[in-house]
Task: structure prediction
Amino acid sequence: MGRGAHETSQTSGTFACCGAARARGPFPYGSAPRLPDPSRARGPARSPPHGRTAGALVTALRVERADVVVVGGGGAGLSAALAVAEAAAREDRRVPVVALVSKVYPMRSHTVAAEGGAAGVVGDDDSLEQHVADTLAGGAGLCEDDAVRFVVERAAGELYRLERWGLPWSRTDDGDVAVRRFGGMSRARTWFAADKTGFHLLHTLFQTSLRYSGVDGPVRRYDEHHVLDLVVDDAGGPDARVRGVVVHDQHRGEPLLIEAPAVVLATGGSARAWGTSTNAGICTGDGTAMALRAGVPLRDMEFLQFHPTGLPGSGILLTEAARGEGGVLLDADGRRYLADYGLGPETPVGAPVPRTMELGPRDRLSQAFWHADRDGRTIPTPDGGVVLLDLRHLGKERLAERLPLVTGLAKQFAGVDPATEPVPVRPTAHYTMGGIRTDARGATGVAGLFAAGECASTGLHGANRLGSNSLVETLVVGRAAGEAALAWSRAAGHPGADGGAAGAGAGVGPASADGEVVDRAAEIADRYLAMRGRGTEPPAAIRAELGRVLDADAGIYRDADGLRRALATVEDLRARYADVRVADTNPVLNTDWATTVELGATLLVAHATVAAALAREESRGAHQRLDFPDVDDVPRHSEVRLDAGGTIEVAHVPVGAEHDMRVGKRPITTPMSFSAERGAGS
Result:
């Protein structure tokens, strides 16, 4: 899309940046500065009065405006953008503008890698209450009941919406939508499109968004634009308010401020931090780190799901659908070992039973592998012990119909034809169940800031996600967050929304391109651009060491010694990152710089994750402590925050409590502190 499209219905321009640059630490990820009181009167939009101080890298900053900014072009981000676009189509008023910003082309978003399906109640033998009950049971006491019900009640409606938009759901012989069994689900309720559900889902959302992304349409796409950070007033305080996002246009090689009263973070998870992971290289925790720096707590970050069937070495996912279709897991002696680790009784081969053996919850299957490996029942390989996923009894025809992607992946990356021989598999880091604390509609507590998808923690998944609940969450919460963001933008009286009429009682003045906001945005861009052409520490070495220590000490089972070792390593890596080397100084399509920026976010999120794991002294769901094997009587969420000095604090709050979502409201329990002083640069 040409840049002129962005200038059609929203004011844009290039501003010189005023004021003296703040003294800054060695790197962008230090503590957030105390920002001015947002309640002061704001005048109309104005240009900053003069240029920036000598030595500033950003001497001019392009500014564009939108009603809503959505960061991320995957399932949750596209759902949010479409919610705004559809509202525009329904209403006879000025078309709202949603800026859809993605660091990759949307069809490269990680949603495309989802294979198995999306859960929604359709069968006569199923019910909403049963879906709720299964989800609560899988979450091991940490689910928020209101979030579970919110998603479950809207799930099938979103899946039918995708069908109307053209998603080719697999069908039964009589033409009905086919559903398959998934682990932890008591009924077959997972809709699927063979084993390429994520691809078809993302393609359907993306092609639908194209209807709204013409020159005069509401969706303005910023493909291959890297969001560096949020601009937030009173970050960490009770009056925190988002003002927009600072973006790097990778093609022009220049920074950009997109000013908006509402932002939806839909940036995906952070499991790429582990050395072996199913996640794409882009799953680096960008939005999660932004929210933490803005003062939003991260909830339940210690709960990282390990998928039981990844290919050794690469970590490539072989979907749970393979077991839902009847695949079985065998140990080195060809025995179905799961019954020996509490997942029995053994079921007939090819006739899976819900919540039993291969269809048990993912956390239980990965834990069973861990025990089998230590009992000498796995097959040694250079990439660690493996067990075997046996699909031979399904036959070539069924594999071609239901599991074509699994078949292709096994052949290409393991050199195995699953129709004729078992496939070696082992657990691999897969899904971030914790994330940015939100309510069921994506609100974070920072005025105007919302989050959806894997980067958010709504309380749906608790301590263990059930397979196929996450895809539908991206749809339901993504849409809800988009609707809520548009409502906030209109209530805030943004000049681009409803002609500038402020909503009664909104308590927020109209957004404006005032010099103070532009100046802060330029300072953010400065800190990141200063990384180029400096430093001595190789980023690849930092990245490799992070993956190694997380694999070793923050895996399926943990203990205090390992977690303290991991914490010390992450702190040291963050200190080294302050002098990270970015040799390439080219401003255009500089992947050396971009991946190093991502690494900073990953390190911060990894620090929060390990600190939360050390602070949770119990075993629950996907978080298992060898030194604390029991489950606490009272389930509590962990909440991780950054204090004003950049120190990570972890506190615990009761599940189901009426939480005050304001970010300035402190936890009700005494926090544990984990010094981040040596990591002020990340």
